[in-house]
Amino acid sequence: MTGQILLYIGDNLSADDIGRQLRAEGLEVTRRHFTRNMDALATTIVVTGANVLISVLNAVFLYLQARRSGKIVIQSVDGWRVEIPSTTAKEDLQGLIELASTKKVHQITVVDTIPNKPDASND
Amino acid sequence: MTFDHQDYHSWLQHQFGVSPTVFLDNLGDWLEAHCSDSLDSVVLQKLASCEATGDSDGFMQLLGPHRNRLGRTVAGILYHRWIRLLTLNHLPPSDRKTVEHIAIAYLPNHPLPEAFITATPRGHVICFSEIHSFGLLTLFQALVAAAPITSIASPGLQIQETDVLDRIIDLARIYTGASPQITLKPLGLNENLIFLSDLMHNNLQLFIMCHEYSHFLLGHLKTVPLPTSWPPQPVASQTQISSSDDPKERDADDYAARLLKRSNTSRDDINHNALIFSSLMVYFFFTILCRLVIGFKLDSLQAQLERGQRIGEVIFGDNAVIHQLKEVEIMIKALDRYLSTRH
């Protein structure tokens, strides 16, 4: 069944890379050419597709795993909420995704967990 | 597919997946097509005539009594046409000439709450989503219901403050898409409170419109070339979310504040300035609440406070004190309540 999810993307995370990962999962991603908002809540991607929640969670988790930081915040319309850090074990991840797929979720947020990212020169 | 340079519609529709109404449509024709069942033909003609002559007061005097007879989307479209007219009337003639050709679009089914500028092959378009517009109006209605009013005759509190705080938190959940199915009970505000909430909402929308126009007037968009391909390409690297500490946003804030402020030489002028400033502060704090609701930290608070402080200094620069309305305090209480009750 086709559905839609709003994906809010936090600072320091690459919407380009996340978008690519989502497309690789066969999802349709709405992005703009150029916009300037007076006060946007966050960079946001509108994702549409079949089994959209499971596909988005898998795609975003792959992105975070490659990055080795960050977490996904999922909350359902009735207030149920869970966080999936990039370090989550595979079996735990599948359990959380299965649990999330039983809830009504319209919006997911992905946030960085490194408060002050060091300069590349310090790596 | 060949791109028709006259057609903002197909560009926006393709880009956002929703059907927009673009404001360069002829208002007379548009009214005839969408409002002939609900409004008298004389009213329709007068509305079109007011817009053509730049008569913003006449436009709202005609529209105001009939707004309840219009559907939500039609009312929203006409409201933003009025805000555009009002904004153009605030601009000096040379600035007005520079921006009045810019198309404005209203996006009824766009899922995100936002006002933004986007580029099309024909030029830039300022867009307003319906959830942005109605969400903010609902926010101001809740706030005025809880704030005892001294500036206009009113019986004061219409609803318990804690109910208002919970209502604002629910509204943030609707606004962000976290819980879009929540329904808020009508508040049944008295006329004075409706007037005040409209006034705050109008001032905020006016500021937003001035802010967007100022990006054009200050040359902020010249560095980004207009797209030339059709259909729109997802060029993510050119997608830009402005942050509160972006110098271009600061300059646009300053321009809008200077344009809308009055001199602070009379009680009326100070009240006017307090309305603009308070509307903005409410908006900034509501944005912080929304960010919290969707899972971000309280990290944007400092930047928003500094932004508000800067705007306050522009608006009240010729006055010893920055004035703000009680509604701002209530908005801060809603933020506190969310922080103290979330798990």
**What's the assembly state of these chains?**
heterodimer
Rg of chain B, rounded, reads 20 Å
**What is the number of helical segments of chain A per DSSP (H or I, 4+ residues)?**
3
SSE series of chain B: HEHHHHHEEEHHHHHHH
Strand content of chain A: 25-35%
Mean pLDDT across the residues of chain B is 88
Shape of chain A: globular
Largest interchain contact: A-B, 37 and 53 residues
Helical amount of chain A: 25-40%
Strand neighbour order, sheet with most strands of chain A: 2-4-1-7-5-6
How many extended strands of chain A?
Answer: 7
Structural class of chain A: alpha+beta
The count of strands of chain B amounts to 4
Please provide a written account of the structure.
The complex is a heterodimer of chains A (123) and B (343). In chain A, helix 1 (15-24) packs across helix 2 (52-67). Chain A has 123 residues and is of the alpha+beta class. Mean pLDDT of chain A is 87; it is low at 117-123. Helix content of chain A is 30%, strand content 30%. Chain A has helices at residues 15-24, 52-67, 90-100; strands spanning 2-9, 28-30, 35-37, 43-50, 71-75, 81-85, 107-111. In chain B, a hairpin with a 2-residue loop joins strand 3 and strand 4 (123-129). Chain B is 57% helix and 6% strand. The model of chain B has no long low-confidence stretch (mean pLDDT 88). Chain B has helices spanning 8-16, 27-35, 41-53, 56-63, 72-90, 93-99, 130-146, 161-175, 191-217, 247-260, 267-293, 301-315, 326-341, and strands at residues 21-22, 103-107, 115-120, 123-129. Chain B has 343 residues and is mainly alpha-helical. Classes of the chains: A alpha+beta (123), B mainly alpha (343). Strand 3 (35-37) of chain A pairs antiparallel with strand 3 of chain B.
